[in-house]
Specification:
alpha+beta, Ubiquitin-like (UB roll), five-stranded mixed β-sheet, EC 1.3.5.1, 2Fe-2S_ferredoxin-like_sf, 4Fe4S_Fe_S_CS
């Protein structure tokens, strides 16, 4: 009897959809069969398998992005019940019904829940968020990082460029060029690396330019929303100190 009741149970989704980058968004309701332990992605898969809305009308399958399905790749970021998060870790049993799904508004919408996160990768290029070893050959083991530094650097390396922190930040929008908390944290990570440190001054110069660290309003929404628990505000505070020291050094010609 319990199995029969479970099979009859459904989950309602209200999805904000958009056919193209230039078209107007609209909402469409779907009802899918409930399964124990299902997440938002499995619900969207049910819609894709049988693309009919709650009225029974045939429609186009909802478009979204996903890859790892274990909160590592960051591809399935979307706004679920008003909160930006990963759809793969959003369990239906823990969500208020109906489940409202929308694309993150900070980024251009390509179609339905698919967004263009190019803004984040442009920011990473601006701050040289990598260890510069191109063109080198095997020189053996590199310099060792102190264990005390490695522990907190590892936490920063968990960033999956999901965009949730930018969506939560009130200072990131289409009216400014603020690079956002994720790129700021990556500056701290690569400046701490024994090899990446050679470009420390360039990264700090980038943070002191338009769209850099001055764009942070210290709302702290980023650290509260980060799905990996990265200490973003700690990094921003450290970079505030680093850029101030760097500025004084430039003034003094040191």
């Amino acid at each position: 009897m319990a199995e029969t009741q479970s099979a009859q149970k459904t989950v309602k989704f209200i999805v904000t959809r958009q056919e193209s980058p230039d078209s107007k968004p609209y909402t469409e309701e779907f009802e899918v069969p409930y399964r124990p332990n299902m997440n938002v992605i499995s619900g969207l898969m049910e819609v894709q398998r049988n693309p009919k809305n709650a009225k029974g009308d045939k429609t186009t399958p909802v478009c979204w992005e996903s890859n790892c399905l274990e909160e590592v790749c960051g591809a399935c970021s979307m706004v679920i019940n008003g909160k930006p998060r990963q759809a793969c870790s959003a369990l239906i049993d823990k969500l208020e019904q109906p489940v409202r799904i929308a694309p993150m508004s900070t980024f251009p919408v390509m179609r339905d829940l698919v967004i263009d996160r190019g803004r984040m990768f442009t920011a990473l290029k601006k701050v040289k968020a990598w260890v510069p070893i191109d063109g080198t050959y095997d020189l053996g083991p590199g310099p060792r990082m102190a264990e005390s530094k490695r522990q907190w650097a590892y936490e920063l390396s968990k960033c999956m460029t999901c965009g949730v922190c930018l969506e939560a930040c009130p200072n990131v929008n289409d009216k400014n060029s603020f690079i956002g908390p994720s790129a700021l944290s990556q500056v701290r990570l690569f400046n701490a690396h024994p090899t990446g440190e050679m470009h420390k001054d360039e990264r700090l110069d980038a943070l002191m330019s338009d769209g850099g660290i001055e764009g942070c309003g210290n709302s702290q929404n980023c650290v509260r929303s980060c799905p990996k628990g990265i200490p973003l505000t700690t990094s921003i505070a450290a970079l505030n100190a680093d850029t101030t020291k760097h500025l004084f050094k430039k003034w003094l010609g040191v």
